[in-house]
Amino acid sequence: MIANRGEIACRIIWTCKEMGIQTVAIHSEADRDSLHVRFADESFCVGSAPSAQSYLNIPNIIAAAEIANVDAIHPGYGFLAESSYFAEICEACNIKFIGPRPEVIRLMGDKVEARRAMQKAGLPILPGSPEPLESEEEALKLAREIGFPVIVKASAGGGGRGMRIVRTEEELGPALETASTEAAAAFKNGDVYIERYIERPRHIEIQVLADEYGECIHLGERECTIQRRHQKLLEEAPSPALSPELRAEMGAAAVKACKGIGYSSAGTMEFLLDEDKRFYFMEMNTRIQVEHPVTEMVTLADIVRNQIRIAEGEHLGYTQADVVIRGHSIECRVNAENPETFAPSPGLITAFNLPGGPGVRVDTAAYPGYFVPPFYDSMIAKVIVHAPTRELAIARMRRALEGMVVEGIKTTIPLHLKIMDDPNFRAGEFSTKFMEHFLSNNGAKGRFDAASLAR
Ligand code: MV4
């Protein structure tokens, strides 16, 4: 059973078909005409359009799984993918949850605990609080030791919610207050911690695969620095910032840490890389990620296949020496959004044509006549390219995006085309501040010409 929707549900079904595994889809009332429902061997409607009533509705999902008598549930990303509670329920119902053990999901979901566990496992972490902060006095004492600026983060957070940068002592009290209030509202847990703030970092993540017998390898890194409001816009592999030596060092550190926490399945260690190329553990994602295809392109690994094999109790069966990074891959997330304002643009896709040709992969659940519902994430397709070099991959991405037709809704394709032409992007020189600079340079009306907006 695939407990998800959209492109990732299709992506999982594609691999199941290649493995000869029968599939069961779940869907909401809004997703009756979705491609994942058509591709699966069986399907169940599990509730109304809002996610809380369907894709997050554990009783209905488990009821469908019991009726279909499924062996395993792949949760995809988002929704229940990092719910240790859901993983436990699956286990209690004798359904294999495709992912790490519930305790490991829970441990990594608590950012303070995860920091501690990873430090113990030998990963470099930023100087910061070893426990959730108890008082403003304690925070101030610690911040003075660390040195300003510091960042306040929610222990139950991740993905940037409940974060506050603090540059002076005066700002600390209010920052703790607002971060904690935000965290309590968003995660029902107001715990916060602080760590040293890195000004212009890169976001580099290492993909790992671990089996249930303690074997673990890494599949290199993904460069995920180009984000807006903590939403990734595009990702690439390898990172233009990493030397083979640094890749090996970060990879070995990630593998050691995975073994240290008893990790199994596919997982991702997120790191901040500072301007002096020092890396620090940030958080670990215990799910398949949106951007996994760039790793698949440069390694030829099928990460979903490996998740399923590992869940079946198979041995990993390869060693680090079997992993070779070949060429360069870029993924652009095509969202149903206004490319200038980022306002959602749901609606009917009246014309749809996908690019193809050498080195182009498109992961999507959209089709001509598909109605993009307003209830879910706005990502409608991932355009992924693979080429011998980064320069050729950028040229290939331009060509692929120019040949992609999506009519009836607005998409972020014109934005991606502009990024492909940006001198700093092309030079591989950027930090997490890239999009702020890019949008203030390109923000003036008219920079996205009418021809590109029509796409
Ligand atoms: C940081 C940081 C600088 N220093 N932590 C953003 C998402 C969340 N996972 C953590 N994030 C950051 N944590 C320290 N100590 C900068 C960010 C950050 C960021 C990180 C990766 C990609 C984009 C980002 C955009 C703004 C801030």
Write the SSE topology:
Blueprint: H1 6-19, E1 24-28, H2 35-39, E2 42-47, H3 58-68, E3 72-73, H4 84-92, E4 96-97, H5 102-109, H6 111-120, H7 136-146, E5 150-154, E6 164-166, H8 169-187, E7 192-196, E8 202-210, E9 216-223, E10 227-228, E11 231-232, E12 234-237, H9 244-261, E13 265-273, E14 279-285, H10 292-299, H11 303-311, E15 328-335, E16 347-348, E17 351-353, E18 360-364, E19 371-372, E20 379-387, H12 390-402, E21 405-407, H13 413-421, H14 423-427, H15 434-442, H16 450-453
Parallel strand pairs: 1-2, 3-4
Antiparallel strand pairs: 5-6, 5-7, 8-9, 8-13, 10-11, 12-15, 13-14, 15-20, 16-19, 17-21, 18-20
The site of ligand MV4 has 17 residues, from strand 7 and strand 14.
Strand count: 21
Global mean pLDDT: 96
Q: What share of residues is helical?
A: 25-40%
Distance between the termini: 35 Å
Number of H/I helices: 16
Low-pLDDT stretches are: 449-455
CATH superfamily of the largest domain: ATP-grasp fold, B domain
Query: Which ligands occur here?
Result: ligand MV4
CATH C-level name of the largest domain: Alpha Beta
Strand content: 15-25%
The helix/strand class is: alpha+beta
CATH architecture of the largest domain: 2-Layer Sandwich
What spatial order of strands do you see in the largest sheet? 9-8-13-14
Taken together, the total number of domains comes to: 3
The CATH topology of the largest domain, please? Answer: D-amino Acid Aminotransferase, Chain A, domain 1
Rg calculated over all Cα atoms: 22 Å
How many strands, what sense, and barrel or not for the largest sheet?
4 strands, antiparallel
Shape: globular
